[in-house]
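Reposting from the mailing list since nobody answered there.

I have sequence plus structure tokens for a pair of proteins and want to know whether others read the tokens the same way I do. The first protein:
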Amino acid sequence: METLQLQAIEKHFKETNKKSKEGSVFSIKPTTITIQEGEAFSLLGPSGCGKTTLLKLVAGLLTPDNGDVILNGNKITSVVPEDRGFSMVFQEALLFPHMMVEENVAFGLKMKGIRKKQRLKRARETLTSVGLEGFGKRYPSALSGGQKQRVSLARAIVTKPRLLLMDEPFSALDPGLREEIRDLVARMHKEYRMTILFVTHDREEAFQLSDRIGVMKNGGILQIDRPRNLYEKPKDPHVARFLGAKNVFYGKLQEGKFVSDDFQVQLTYAQNPEQSGWLVIRPETLSIHKESAEQESNVFQGTVQKLSFRQGFYYIKIQTGSKVLEIVQHADVRLDESEGKAIWLRVDPNQLYFIPEKG
């Protein structure tokens, strides 16, 4: 089994401001990751966090300052990109405009010395697998954006790479095409069991395509886990927020309760006493009480700030003290809440998650 490992890999850059002549440093902090054969692994984070830099270190397009890239137990840190057996798919398709589609797809096979008849046969078969049967004789200029990206994917997988590297491959596509190509990549991964390292800032893409996700910030990995575990059990407030948690509040545990400036809730599991940290309240775990429920536990009052409807759900922002909570209600639930109306909210204590403050 071929396994890709990044072992304490680092990269440091220094940029100089021409006006002030002061230098700023960006670094990939010592990073260790293991990606198993056949796994789809995503690097997820905001722009500028180091995702693409890490991808380039794996590809051999950048040389690490420290650490190693290891494939199947062998160090490949000093191996040139073309000898690593990897393929890449970029944001743009980057097709050769003077070559027909089938020639573009077969280009990697040509570099491997495979005879023309055989490589064109494999190129046409791969085009069929990505939904472009009969497109081989066309030129890139005659293709749509989605078709070009399909050709780019076909060119990447026709060589049967040891690792497929994908750098924000859907970001230049409109939403409809993005979903279409995303579904195609998911199907190809399942069909070919390719090992994929995928870079994205879009959590929906990462959740759909990944077996595991590494969430990045400022050049480092905050947490690596399966998508559901990341969502339900984030180890860092940045991870929780980046994965869509709207209700993340700082406070302190006191006598089995989480206490913030504006509200307190009872917890059902033991925590260290007097510990500070963040409480994550997922929007779907909050419910609305029609009448005053001040005497009940885990119930607090708020004021409707905004109500919107999207894709079968109501999204409601509630002001409670200085905090704003977001709740989600299915469209089947009849709502008569209007902006400015006072309501009562209840949170299920079994659905709360506490992130202890480090240090």
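The second protein, same order (residues first, tokens after):
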Amino acid sequence: VSIAAQIDGLTVAGLVADPTHGRTFTATLGGGAFCNLEQMQPIAPTARSGEELLATALVATGFSYSAERRARQGNVLAELLPKIRDIRRMGSAAVDLCSVAGGRVDAYFEVGLSAWDFAAGALIATEAGAQVGSIDPSSTVTDGILAASPALFGPLQELLCMLGAAQV
């Protein structure tokens, strides 16, 4: 379950329920992120290089319902896998974004989503200290969303752009 409240297109509150794992994530704009009513620890800064961060990154993603698009996404992943630690596929954009917020994965990216798929999770991740934006800096998050720690965001965004991840 993922619910977001927006004012003039700006997400101001979000809730993501993950009943499988007994977790409920919430956030308000400027109010921090919470898991089961306990404030989440902010994502810690790091002195590691972008290359080091990429090599150890556990990255979550999702796949399209379209077989043709999934095949293109698979090609991108085949190129991405040797450059990162591993890939995870959990099945919910909102839960994946909360997994970035909680440090269970280092990053998340996906294309082909609607705002209702990611609005609440994106606010929760942002309030936990993640950087959330588009895969392609010249596009919007509705064209392809990326969330990661601020130190990992730039290097991963550059790599995903080079691999054509936003164009699948």
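Reply #1 (J.P.):
I read it the same way you do. The helical segments are 50-55, 67-80, 93-101, 115-127, 150-163.
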